[in-house]
């Protein structure tokens, strides 16, 4: 998506205080029959980008908005920020209409593309955004150092952003989205361009935001990341809501029973298979579970950091051919 960074947020009047009358509200974002039609210069209908969307995002949850390219995710975010007006229906954020710019004081926004100023350092960037929110000099100092530490950029905070890797840029973007200590954070593709370690760290940061009681709306094409962090998801296709629910419920495979046990002998496994057959069930597999590729990758990198120079050798059948004579003989066996 191509929305300006914190455009709506920065537009908010800087002297107004947040409206806290809705502190006990059970819904943070509510879209009611929300539709958006983009029209051309002559007012003719060009694209029906969103069709009668009804979703609710609740306080303290991480809500995922998923869908293929062009399904209406960015349009939804722009409508939530009040950067676009609905063709019909409504968006309420903190019980206020999305066109009410004051509500944006309580929103942090990480756009998909970074629009940060390349010649500023991380410190200067966050200080700049702190000024937009009218934070005092001492508030800015405290908040900037707290956020820099939170996103792990202490060692690089005096370097200009043009020298930053994609992962570092993403982190400073997240810190910028949090400068106003928002209650609601909109994250558009937060893990784009990050390696598995950066991705894991970003996911941990997002989970940390939920632990602090923040509400997070996350758009992503990285389905594994969504599965890892989101409590509930909505899946859009061609502007229509196709699925909505708790991740754990949506992904549960019905009519398959999973049992995890340790220390079973082969004889015990055979006995279990017999019991299942006796009860009319079918054994699909009795096997060792597999870890995820992310777990494998992170373990290898952490091991390598702990023991530089050692080469890990898998016990898998391809290991011998993958292992050349230069590997260390004890190899840090998997
Ligand atoms: N300003 C615009 N004018 C005309 N059509 C637009 C405009 N912005 C978006 N669209 C169209 O609206 C539809 C939804 O676009 P949107 O950007 O919301 O999708 P998205 O789900 O965010 O896609 P992506 O995953 O690629 O970011 C698409 O068909 C897109 O071409």
Automatic annotation (TrEMBL):
<feature type="region of interest" description="Disordered">
    <location>
        <begin position="306"/>
        <end position="334"/>
    </location>
</feature>
<feature type="region of interest" description="Disordered">
    <location>
        <begin position="1"/>
        <end position="24"/>
    </location>
</feature>
<keyword id="KW-0067">ATP-binding</keyword>
<dbReference type="Pfam" id="PF00005">
    <property type="entry name" value="ABC_tran"/>
</dbReference>
<dbReference type="InterPro" id="IPR051782">
    <property type="entry name" value="ABC_Transporter_VariousFunc"/>
</dbReference>
<dbReference type="GO" id="GO:0005524">
    <property type="term" value="F:ATP binding"/>
</dbReference>
<protein>
    <submittedName>
        <fullName>ABC transporter ATP-binding protein</fullName>
    </submittedName>
</protein>
<keyword id="KW-0547">Nucleotide-binding</keyword>
<dbReference type="GO" id="GO:0016887">
    <property type="term" value="F:ATP hydrolysis activity"/>
</dbReference>
<dbReference type="InterPro" id="IPR003439">
    <property type="entry name" value="ABC_transporter-like_ATP-bd"/>
</dbReference>
<feature type="compositionally biased region" description="Low complexity">
    <location>
        <begin position="314"/>
        <end position="334"/>
    </location>
</feature>
<dbReference type="InterPro" id="IPR003593">
    <property type="entry name" value="AAA+_ATPase"/>
</dbReference>
<keyword id="KW-0813">Transport</keyword>
<dbReference type="InterPro" id="IPR027417">
    <property type="entry name" value="P-loop_NTPase"/>
</dbReference>
<feature type="domain" description="ABC transporter">
    <location>
        <begin position="29"/>
        <end position="263"/>
    </location>
</feature>
